[in-house]
Structures
1.
Amino acid sequence: MPTGSTPLEQYELGQLKLTAVLESASEPKAIVENQAGKGFTAKKGMKIGVNGGEIIEIHPDRLVILEKTVDFTGETKTKTL
């Protein structure tokens, strides 16, 4: 498994599942589980996934994640997942 600076950066996005969203007045938080059922708290601005994705929005049914990748020509591309 790749190493990241946070536990959520050690997983491919496909290995993680959104299990709950905690609504609050200040900012919503999400509970994300790995394939073994271990839960992690995630919030807007956190890094997630092995490709350096960042959580930019938290909705009741999904997370919006922005990933920046560099293609074979050296051009930086952004992808919203």
2.
Amino acid sequence: SGDLDRMVRALPAQSNPIDRHFLLQCIVMQSYKARKDSGMKQLCVKFGRVHLDEMTAIAPALATEFGGSLPVVPSFKWLATALAEDGRVDEAVAVCETASRLGLSDGTVGGYLGRAKRLRSVSVKASSKNG
């Protein structure tokens, strides 16, 4: 619907895994886009984690819906970015590693493991600059 409050209110309703996936992804996307607002960033992290936690249950139906393979799921790159922006790089890396273990792609050549490597690299550079 594009109405973030309405989407969040719809979460408790029973739905099929595909609808649940797209509802969570839309919530994460909307809150990610407005993440300069700290409350929106908190929503992005909260529902990004919910999506990641539920992905094991969602993945089989999603793969079936998409002809046997999982589609690109951007929720977790948004979650990782929001965490990294808050200096929570280890958590961001863990999100990327979990998404990779689930067989998900972030749409980049290096995938979620490449994203995790870049996050670690940026974190090391920032640490050596500050220390």
